[in-house]
Design brief:
Blueprint (H helix, E strand, L loop, with lengths): L1 H13 L3 E6 L2 E5 L2 H7 L4 E5 L9 E2 L6 H9 L5 E5 L10 H8 L6 E24 L3 E11 L10 H9 L9 H6 L6 H57 L4 H32 L2 E25 L2 E10 L4 E2 L15 E2 L6 E2 L43
Parallel strand pairs: 3-4, 5-8
Antiparallel strand pairs: 1-2, 2-3, 6-7, 6-8, 8-9, 9-10, 11-12
Helix pairs in contact: 7-8
């Protein structure tokens, strides 16, 4: 809880409160009126952050609505920040080996044109997701983009956080370096690029929750089916027995059992509708925070060749991570390192973005035709995983 304690202490001081650390798990806060009203505290509050609650202390933790109260007090502060991150002045000894590890092209070839020192912009964003079905799951996902090359840097984010933690002094980005890193993306381009990436990360985060939810749904559906199937079977047996007899009494028995079977079937359908409503999944995603980093890189210029066409792409090697980023991806989330090159415009895409159309079986590039199949016009063929990366 030390990080939460430090965060609360910093926030209280910024809002005009007097804060005193009583012990590693305790704060004493003398808060002004706006803070007291927002947090529901007395003028002098003792806050506990450890597993054991001291007498008279208010227990602060991740449970309950404390994060919502702190977020309301924080308001828009801290939602966006810019920082410069310096890295060691090093370069890979074997640039071709770097490209070989970072880029896999099953249907094309590449050639390294050169490598030079450069500066780039990294955009790291946090999104809060909430998945609600019969139960609820909440969490944060982080995504990262290199605005200079268009590449996804999600696999480098753990090392980026370590590098930021080892550089506690906040360094504002130099304006000259920011201009050298290139212009910011347009809002529409950024949104189109982030949509499949965030969807992929949230899907991966809630996958265990969805598997557990489906097991519970299957269990409840089977239980309801067994119960109503037994009732229906017993009613059908009585109906069959009544069908072997004649007379008014037998006819009344047949009508009664027929109505019973219809009522059981109606109840079964209603129970299934209740299950669908109870297990319906609702997912909400909200942007929380953005960090723009200006960082030095070693930029690799790579020439891609496919049949008679060729194009140049940029691939950055990051000194602070001692690793290269994933290659540019112009359709799909861009998480992996395998790319296919299309014939028409030499787009680099994930393999799934050049799969055959599910309707007419014609392969086509989703970067060239993001809306529909060019042959049959079919949509809904996993075409939502498009990204409009800027041209390079």
């Amino acid at each position: 809880m030390s990080q939460l304690r430090e965060f609360v202490a910093d926030l209280m001081e910024q809002r005009g409160a007097v804060v005193e650390a009583m012990d590693p798990d305790m704060l004493e806060v003398l808060a002004p009126a706006p803070v007291r009203q927002a947090m529901g505290w007395p003028e002098l509050a003792r806050l506990g952050f450890g597993p054991e609650r001291a007498p008279g202390a208010i227990a602060i933790g991740l449970e309950g609505d404390w994060l919502e109260r702190l977020g309301a007090l924080l308001a828009a502060d801290g939602r966006f920040s810019a920082r410069a991150l310096s890295g060691p002045d090093i370069a890979p000894a074997d640039p071709e080996r770097v490209v070989e590890r970072a880029l896999e092209l099953p249907n094309a070839v590449w050639r390294l044109k050169g490598m030079s020192a450069a500066v780039t912009h990294l955009l790291v964003l946090a999104f809060r997701y909430s998945a609600v079905s019969d139960e609820k799951r909440e969490g944060l996902v982080w995504v990262g983009l290199n605005l200079g090359t268009g590449a996804v840097i999600n696999d480098l984010l753990p090392r980026l956080r370590d590098a930021l933690a080892l550089t506690p002094d906040w360094q504002a980005p130099d304006e000259t370096a920011r201009r050298a890193a290139g212009p910011a993306w347009e809002s529409a381009t950024l949104q189109a690029r982030l949509a499949p990436l965030v969807e992929h990360e949230v899907g991966a985060a809630i996958a265990p929750f969805l598997r557990a939810m489906r097991r519970r749904l299957e269990r409840d559906r089977n239980r309801i089916h067994r119960y109503h199937d037994d009732l229906r079977g017993a009613a059908l047996q009585r109906l069959g027995a009544a069908a072997r007899h004649e007379g008014e009494r037998a006819e009344a028995e047949r009508r009664r059992e027929t109505l019973r079977v219809e009522a059981i079937e109606r109840e079964y359908r209603a129970k299934l509708d209740d299950l669908r409503h109870n297990y319906a999944l609702r997912i909400a995603i909200e942007w929380v925070q953005a960090l723009e980093l200006t960082v030095p890189v070693q930029r690799l210029e790579v020439l891609i060749r496919r049949r008679k066409g060729e194009r140049a792409i940029r691939l950055d090697w990051h000194p602070w991570a001692k690793a290269a980023e994933a290659p540019l991806c112009e359709a799909g989330p861009g998480i992996g390192r395998v790319r296919l090159v299309c014939d028409d415009k030499l787009h680099l895409t994930e393999p799934a973005a050049q799969q055959p159309c599910r309707t007419c079986a014609k392969p086509f590039c989703r970067a060239c035709f993001p809306a529909a199949c060019p042959r049959c016009g079919a949509t809904g063929d996993a075409l939502a995983a498009q990204s409009a990366a800027p041209g390079h």
